[in-house]
Amino acid sequence: MNDRSSRSHTIFRVVIESREMMSESKEPDTIDGAVRVAHLNLVDLAGSERASQTGAFGQRLREGGHINKSLLALGSVIGKLSEGER
After folding, report:
1. What pairs with residue 36 in β-bridges?
2. SS3 letters across 30-85
3. Which pLDDT value is given to residue 38?
4. Is-contact 47 64, C-beta < 8 A?
5. What angle do CA 6, 12, 14 make, to 5 degrees?
6. pLDDT digits (tens, 9 = 90+) for 76-85
7. Residues 42-76: pLDDT tens digits?
8. Alpha-carbon gap, residue 4 to 20, rounded angstroms
């Protein structure tokens, strides 16, 4: 087990929107209608741990169990997001 591990998950999502402006007007509120949207998801996961290999006990063992359970839930969420569902 890595002693410096934060033992947490992080998701950072970037959404970028690009809108086409009408060619004759450069005013930002005159949108031509074409909108492009891009999503970038950066995910940093805590490591999955096997209690038998880490030698953890007490609080560290419970944390490892919570990490493993949350990895399973997070996997389900990521699977649904990749299908376009929310």
Report:
1. 18
2. CEEEEEEEEEEEEEECCCCCCHHHHCCCCHHHHHHHHHHHHHHHHHHHHHHHHCCC
3. 93
4. no
5. 165
6. 888 888 887 5
7. 888 777 666 666 677 788 778 878 888 888 888 88
8. 47
